[in-house]
Specification:
Layout lengths: L3 E7 L23 E2 L1 H7 L5 H10 E3 L11 E3 L17 H6 L6 H5 L2 E6 L2 E6 L4 H8 L7 E7 L5 E5 L14 H12 L6 H18 L7 H7 L2 H11 L1 H5 L4 H17 L1 H4 L3 H14 L4 H6 L1 H33 L10 H24 L6 H15 L5 H11 L5 H6 L1
Helix pairs in contact: 5-17, 6-15, 7-9, 7-16, 13-16, 15-16
Length: 414
């Protein structure tokens, strides 16, 4: 009998249900599909002769297996990167003929994300799934969390933190829960504009990164005494660009920066998503950038578009980005989710959000619709492309560090 465990999950989690063939962007197309060892062995013992032949033809051992519970075997995809077990209506043949119990751990779990913090299992959804994106992003009330004791079911641990270990005793990781909860609190503080909340988050992470490597016991005191209003006042007082009336140039800096990011991403050569390629083409048509000179020449048009779109987001759709940020912080164990400095994790989060807005402004310039559903649809496609790209995030971070852009001053410009 399966025992109950401590679970903490976003309130939207229980509402999720895979819609299968009705989905606008199948998770069974474009990605490698992993098979855990137990499921792999079962596939070759099924009594259904036709299904057993399909498994023999389309499932093989994974020579680069990293965990028997995840990728002991792999599915041989078709030339169009389509899973051979999808029928013509995009429904899973394994599920329809053998039942859900015969799905691999990966196929059962996605887009569910399970992390473990001490003895608590944390559940959320990946925004790369269209149905999950709708639940996560379009809730105007924001994301809330629920704690219960329940049975766990089939799962894959994506990340794990144990703050009771001796190895983390004198490190900021000891206070992982306090730090992450405060990050979420900052982002959900609707007394302030989202851009202000993002700056405060960066200031908090920057000070945390600089001052507590060898003095982690002071972190809780630092959190309790951190004053958001004072931080914002100092930010506004010290913002030289605003004082000089040159803050508009930040938009042009963003355009130049993200045009370089597009070169790193290599959309034409390395991206397989037709949807993302179409978005990119439409966005570039909107900006109509021929060369560096055209950016300068059309700067007044870009500045106007950025300001107009920021006004739309600020007054109608800030909650979408708030939810995106909170979900990312929660299911990626932010700011301890990468083997880099805490501030670098912040810069990479900010880069994601600003890159999304860069695309949306380009689509806006091209006359595309910009309602909440359209924004959520783009964020889903963006996330599926970027988060699962083999090298873009590390390559872009390398570019940022090489050009010494991983600092609070650059963060103000994004």
């Amino acid at each position: 009998m399966e025992c109950k465990v401590k679970k903490r999950y976003a309130a939207y989690f229980e509402k999720f249900k895979c819609i299968g063939g009705k989905c606008s962007d199948s998770c069974c197309v474009g990605w490698n599909i992993d098979i855990d060892k137990i499921t792999f062995k079962r596939y070759f013992k099924v009594k259904d002769t036709e299904m057993r032949k399909m498994f023999q033809k389309n499932v093989q051992n994974n020579e680069r297996c990293s965990s028997e519970d995840v990728d002991y075997g792999i599915v041989k995809l078709k030339k169009d990167k389509r899973c051979p077990f999808l029928d013509k209506k995009n429904y899973c043949i394994i599920h329809s003929k053998l039942g859900e119990d015969y799905l691999s751990n990966v196929c059962t779990c996605f887009p569910r994300v399970t992390n473990k913090v001490n003895d608590t299992y944390e559940m959320s959804l990946d925004v790369a799934c269209p149905e999950a994106a709708r639940l996560i992003l379009l809730n105007e009330e924001g994301i809330r969390f629920v704690s219960k004791e329940e049975k766990l079911g089939k799962y894959i641990i994506s990340a794990q933190v144990d703050t009771t270990l001796k190895e983390v005793k004198n490190t900021p990781l000891k206070y992982f829960k306090e730090v992450r909860d405060f990050c979420i609190e900052i982002i959900q503080n609707r007394q302030f504009k989202l851009s202000e909340r993002l700056y405060v988050l960066g200031d908090f992470i920057n000070k945390l990164d600089d001052g507590f490597e060898n003095n982690s016991n002071e972190i809780v005191k630092f959190i309790n005494e951190y004053d958001v209003k004072t931080t914002l006042k100092e930010y506004k007082d010290e913002d030289i660009n605003s004082l000089l009336g040159n803050s508009n140039m930040n938009y042009i800096i963003q355009i130049n920066f993200f045009m370089k990011m597009l070169k790193i991403l290599k959309v034409d050569k390395e991206i397989e998503s037709v949807s993302f390629k179409n978005y990119t083409e439409t966005m570039l048509n909107g900006y109509n950038i021929q060369d560096d000179e055209s950016i300068s020449k059309n700067s007044h048009l870009y500045i106007k578009a950025f300001k107009e779109y920021e006004y739309i987001l600020e007054n109608k759709y800030d909650y979408i980005f708030e939810n995106y940020l909170v979900n990312y912080i929660y299911n990626n164990m932010f700011p301890f989710n990468e083997v880099i400095s805490l501030f670098d994790t912040y810069i990479m989060l900010l880069m994601r959000v600003s890159f999304i807005k860069f695309y949306l402004v380009g689509l806006y310039l091209n006359g595309e619709d910009n309602d909440n559903k359209k924004i959520a649809e783009f964020i889903q496609v963006f996330s599926k492309t970027i988060e699962h790209h083999k090298s873009f995030l590390m390559d872009s971070l390398a570019y940022i560090k090489r050009n010494e852009l991983n600092n609070i001053e650059f963060a103000k410009m994004l």
